[in-house]
Prior knowledge:
The structure holds two protein chains of two kinds. Chain A is mostly helical.
Amino acid sequence: MIAPTTPRKDMVMFIVFAIAILTLPIWMAPLGGSYPDLLQKFAIFGLFAVGFNILFGLTGYLSFGHAAFLGVGSYTAVWSFKLLSMNILPAIFFGMITSGLFALIIGYVSLRRSGIYFSILTLAFAQMSYNLAYSVLTPITYGETGLQLAQYDPRILDAQATVEGGGIPLTNLFGLEMQGWPGFYFCAVVLIIGFYIAMRITRSPFGMMLLAVKSNQNRMNYTGLNTRPYTLAAFVISGIYAGLAGSLMAVTDPLAGAERMQWTASGEVVLMTILGGVGTLLGPVLGAAIIKYFENIFSAINESVLHAFFGFLPDFIENGLVNVASLFVGKGWHLTLGVLFMVMVIFLPGGVIEAYDRIRKRFFSKETRSSAAPQAGDD
Amino acid sequence: MKSIITRRGLLKGTAAGAGVAALGSVAPTHFIKNAWAEEFRNDPTNKSAITLGFNVPQSGPYADEGADELRAYKLAVKHLNGEGDGGMLNTMKPLSLKGNGILGKKVEYVTGDTQTKSDAARASAKRMMEKDGVSMVTGGSSSGVAVAVQALCQEMGVIFMAGLTHSNDTTGKDKRRYGFRHFFNSYMSGAALGPVLKDEYGTERRAYHLTADYNWGYTTEESVKNTTEALGWETVAAVRTPVGAGDFSQYITPVLNSGADVLILNHYGKDMVNSLTQAVSFGLRDKQVNGKNFEIIVPLFSRLMAQGAGDNIKGILGTTNWNWSLQDAGSQAFVKSFGQEYGFPPSQAAHTCYVQTLLYANACEMAGTFNPVEVIKTLEGFNFDGMGNGPTEYRAADHQCFKDVLVVRGNENPSSQFDLLQVVQQVPRSQVEYDPSIFGGELGPYKA
Lengths: 379, 448
């Protein structure tokens, strides 16, 4: 399954990754995606997908309820802003702790089953959390309206009391406000750290154990090895990643809503991982970026933009093209994404990373023949 | 060297000195002027066009309203740029707009899909502010979304002109300095409905509420409840239903055996279409309870919903912000140009969005700047007329518009497929007015 890799190759990949993430604002500019909010989402959902991949990519356990941890992380972070301080460090810390605890409980129950039963159990737990957040726990979550900051929140750790008529303070890291570009760079650094940890986990003996669970869990059980602690650890780690991503969402935009926990959100991270390449390190980040790009850029294209784009053509061709193309943009962006996803799964089950590998093999076949693995390579 | 002061030399020297003095005295005013023209987000001064952000639900339970809002926005942009027949620019008073854009700049727009979700709406609004450089964000067809986007706009320092949002919270406990609402609210609906309900259904009724489970539903339920209980009605139960539920039968079955004789549907959009249709198909309206005919009330009514619900809305009472059948010059002008453009009359959502866009543009023109601080100050306490609701005031204390409210009834004999609501009463502004302090909340600072 795994292409031979060396620590040196990993280091090179990691450094290239870090540079690519930090220079996102420059090379996303020609693609029309160079604005803080979208790039923050790239980093946050990249982190979410990286964490999800530790569970799904390594152990093969397909969780359909990871958005629950994302939501828990967000709610905890916003409550930390409300009660403790607008400083983001406690918010992130508590976000990770509570989502880790949640993951421990849900994982402990769900991991008693595997395969489709596990997926259904996680889905059920996530839907339960969603419905709790949406209606039952309204005093904590504020239901459909969403949890928001208010002028007169206690914020007991913040030194200066709320100024009369001063507005709601912004989230900050010791005074550095986390909106706009600083917010992106903070998320980017967290993503790079998270990526590094995921890389080390994948390459560690623990990671090998998880891969063994994926390839044949029965055989492991027969050798007298209890795999439950390993899978549970992987589940909790990926839950903490999701909680971290959720608290980062609250950091860049202090609001938490129940829709973050809905099954569509859980499905989204599965799509991201599959689109990018299951079991690879870079794949989930790429998948997250592609989906968020579609959601934010394609959904904003309207007919007048299309008319401007096809404006050089004669009128009757222009109108025809605009009519066809407008099905796939604006509110039709889901359709484009669906088509892309189908094409990927049918022709490139290994996702973007497999596409990259195939291209590389075609052009550099002599050099890589000895090292290339037959299936989807691991970066 | 002899130092002789010649007449010519002296003159030169004096002139130079005067020049320096003049420079010296000019420079400070120059700096002061710069200081006054403060920087603000997305200042369009150096651009040839001003961009507005239209953030509406294009998917989800309020998609029909969203589509109509977008039509109205496009029409408003046309009229602002001096295209088309000008619509309400011909009737609005006082009017500073000249039909050449805003402050001489052409108006352009970008659109986004809120999906009726706070997260998606905020992401979309952020894109407009950060990437597209919009000077104003407007839209929304859900109070949850409106409140979330309004808070974001306050943070970012961009004006938010709320579209269709009816919750008391929008200009109540969640009001913001940068947010403005032209639409009426739940409190006004309750206050306007009260006397009509008393006349029609008497003072001894038992009401059962089905309420959309978010801030709009809560405030509507509360306001209507306060009104009906003041009439002497009893509230049997108030049940929360999820937004976008689709199937309401599990909520309607208990109504049959509850002993209630009035069902109040605090639903909107497709939810209201579905719940009303199902309530009628369960035979609620043919029932007799406590010796009285069973009645259904829909506090917030709209023609789009009436269209969706078909015959089921006949005879049902509710309130609305505006209806296309109004005969004043402003409404007529708007209905005419909307009809010419799209071939059917506008909804109340379209009306409020169109008016909001014009009001923002007019305030910029009046203030002579796009600086939001000055524009806000111009809008606060602004009195206007000729926009379909009679004399209207943007109250400075909570940025809520005060105007007459319409109590309507589903038309028993519609003359066309759009003639679905019949105006029962035009409730005067004085009857629906309230003290801004009852909902709490604080507008916040002028400078974001």
